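Q: Convert this sequence to structure tokens.
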Amino acid sequence: MKRTLALLLTPLCLLFASPVFAHGDEAHMKKPTVVKKEQKDWGIAGDGKAAKRTIDIKMLDSMRFTPDRIEVSQGDTVRLTMTNTGQVMHEMVLGTQTVLTEHAALMKRFPNMEHDEPYMAHVPPGKTGEIIWTFNQAGSFDFACLLPGHFEAGMVGKIEVKAAKGAQ
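A:
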């Protein structure tokens, strides 16, 4: 009886399992096209068409970004393109020093935490990622790789957003 039941259920299991195996290509792993726009202290997600400037940044296994200092003007929408030239995963997260420090502590507790915010890019070795951001707040802000050990090793940078003329 058990053998007959197993013979009957095997084709049914294969029928439902097959689509799972066929659905694993990378095309489905891309970020959603709808970006959540939420005002942060350091700006808001930007539209690619509005980006007037691209800044290329290298992510290095020496736990550094090159360049590690960026200057933009208030109101600029910038395409930040990060290339991971190393052999390990890196990420770039925009924020304030306080936000980044708090998030780095969370990453230590939950190292496999997924990131899907528009001010974050997780970049595998040899790959390129991007953040499109509108810097609508003047001030001094930060970026960092928050993977455990990277932040502590100094994989950080600064963004200076110069106030727009006439702004106070």
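The radius of gyration is 21 Å.
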